[in-house]
Amino acid sequence: MDTFDLRTLSLRAGEVRQERLEVEVAPFVLGGQRYDVNPSVVPLELEVTRASGATVFELRLAAHLRGPCMRCLALAEVDVGVAVRELHDAGAPAQDELRSDYVVEEQLLVGIWARDAIALEIPEQILCRPECLGLCPVCGRDLNVEPHEHIEVGTDPRWAALEQLRDGI
Fold first, then answer.
1. What is the count of structural domains for the chain?
2. Cα separation, 126 vs 114, whole angstroms
3. How confident is the model at residue 164 (pLDDT cuts 50, 70, 90)?
4. 3-class SS at 149?
5. Residue 119 confidence (pLDDT) above 90
6. pLDDT on residue 96
7. Does residue 26 fall inside a structural domain?
8. Which domain holds residue 77?
9. Strand, helix or coil at 53?
10. What is the mean pLDDT of the chain?
11. Core-most of 49, 62, 96, 157, by most CB within 10 Å?
């Protein structure tokens, strides 16, 4: 279910309705890498409260993301917990902050709201483990598996002209 029909509620001020729904969450692309929500169908809890003149929506869910580590490209997994709230006043002007962008023609866009909420909770770096060493910038080997250092054998030939200037002074 990607939308929730608000016309079926008929709540009076102060009343609360709780719903358990499932939404399919599309994969995320971060830094050119794909991160899948696993499973792609995520259960969530929606609570709708009618306040005087407005409706308050609360959404709670937990999602599990899988994709490449941002340092070494090994499989990384991260759990994301979401608890968000939206206020919607149907009588407010179209671009007013009291009007939720997730309510369109008496439909709550639950799928879009859930995906946006997950996106805001994804950590800046998705790592296979916190102490991941990444890939060697010289040879590209995984430093977690094979820690090593490269000893610089000679000077880069592109610097030769500058060395001649330095030696001539």
1. 1
2. 20
3. confident
4. coil
5. yes
6. 80
7. yes
8. 4-132
9. coil
10. 89
11. 49
pLDDT at 1: 64
Q: Are strands 28-30 and 33-37 parallel, antiparallel or unpaired?
A: antiparallel
Residue 32 lies in a domain: yes
Q: Hey, what are 163's tokens?
A: 């060395």
CA dihedral 137, 147, 72, 153 (to 10 degrees): 10
Backbone phi and psi for residue 168, each to the nearest 5 degrees, phi listed first: -80, -15
CB-count exposure of residue 5 (10 Å: 0-12, 13-18, 19+): exposed
Q: Which residues are CB-neighbours of 21 under 8 A, at least 6 positions away?
A: 1, 4, 43, 44, 45, 46, 110
Q: To the nearest 5 percent, what fractions of the chain are helix, strand and coil?
A: 15, 40, 45
Cα maximum dimension of the chain: 88
Domain presence at residue 169: no
Torsion of CA 134, 135, 141, 146, to 10 degrees: -30
With respect to residue 166, please indicate whether it lies within any of the assigned structural domains: no
